[in-house]
Amino acid sequence: MDNILEDILQQLKDMSDPKAIEGMQRYGITPDRTYGVSIPNLRAIAKDTGHDHELAKSLWNSDIRETRILASMIDEPARVTEKQMEQWVLDLDYWEICDQCCMNLFQKSPHAIQKAVDWSYRREEFVKRAGFVLMARLAVADKAAPDELFESFLPIIEREATDSRNYVRKAVNWALRQIGKRNPHLNTRALRTAETINNMDSKSAHWIASDAIRELSSKKVQERLQRRKSHRT
Q1: What pLDDT, in 10s, does the model give residues 51-86?
Q2: Within this chain, do residues 68 and 180 fall inside the same structural domain, yes or no?
Q3: According to the model, what pLDDT value does residue 233 have?
Q4: Structure pTM?
Q5: Element housing 179 (H / E)
Q6: In principle, which of 133, 200, 202, 216 could form an S-S bond with 102, CB 3.0–4.6 Å?
Q7: Helix axes 219-232, 184-198, angle to 10 degrees
Q8: C-beta atoms surrounding 98 within 10 Å
Q9: C-beta of residue 41 within 8 angstroms of C-beta of residue 66
């Protein structure tokens, strides 16, 4: 495994792009160490490498932007324990690694729903963000999940809507919008939640609510939801 790790590190060094690093900083991607390798190139490396739980842990411990994103891509969700998730989530310190880890790995874990709820209560900015990113991603990816699951997320979204931290409020908004785009019933429930949030005495809550109401009540979203409804009946 050491040889594989060294080979990957060499590939990343060979792909290093200083201009990309400058560009990432403008978008709030601020790791301490990075080679500036693009996500498509990382996905290509992950595809060639294949799934490997132990290698994923070694890559994560290398503590470079690219090795941590790769770790989330090649780890085996069924082997990821709650302890590992709790350890990794504390290492999340900027939005890209938070979102990549949630999308590539955490959402596929059997612990995803519980962690979405647990982390929503946490104070740490990117731990809390991870909780709401998981809610958003589950709404998109878990086609078999019942409406009741997402209805249970709505009071949590309402509870945290006054958090003014940029990366938290954006994730809260993301979760609300994705739930509301899942089907007509959840659209109605999400819009109702957004109206409640809009009545709060909070700039963050107003932003979350107005943005969600604008999208969820738009002609484009409503037409898409009606098409889905007709296909199912």
Answers
A1: 999 999 999 999 999 999 999 999 999 999 999 999
A2: no
A3: 59
A4: 0.95
A5: helix 166-180
A6: 133
A7: 150
A8: 23
A9: no
Tell whether 15 and 64 lie within a shared domain.
yes
Q: Is 67 found in the same domain as 161?
A: no
pLDDT digits 0-9 by tens, 81-134 = 999 999 999 999 999 999 999 999 999 999 999 999 999 999 999 999 999 999
As a whole number of angstroms, the distance between CA 16 and CA 114 comes to 37
Task: Give the range of the structural domain holding residue 115, as residue numbers without chain letter.
Answer: 93-233
Instruction: Return the CA Rg of the chain.
Output: 19
pLDDT above 90 coverage of the chain, percent = 93
Q: Work out the burial of residue 117: count CB atoms within 10 Å of its CB; fewer than 13 is exposed, 13-18 middle, 19 or more buried.
A: middle
Angle at the Cα of 31 from the Cα atoms of 27 and 35, rounded to 5 degrees: 95
Question: What is the C-alpha to C-alpha distance for residues 131 and 204, in angstroms, rounded to an integer?
Answer: 18
Q: Position of tokens 């990113």?
A: 133
In this structure, are residues 52 and 74 in contact, taking their beta carbons and an 8 Å threshold?
yes
Going by C-alpha positions, the residue among 199, 209, 148, 137 that lies closest to residue 173 is 209
Work out the angle at residue 210's Cα, subtended by the Cα atoms of residues 205 and 213, and round it to the nearest 5 degrees: 120
Per-residue pLDDT of 4-39, as tens digits, reads 999 999 999 999 999 999 899 888 998 999 999 999
Total domains, the chain: 2
In this structure, what token pair is assigned to residue 69?
Answer: 């994103």
Q: How far apart are alpha carbons 131 and 114 in whole angstroms?
A: 9
One-letter amino acid for residue 26 of the chain: R
Let me know whether 207 and 99 are in one domain. yes
Residue 81 covered by a domain: no
Among the candidates 49, 75, 101, a domain finishes at 75
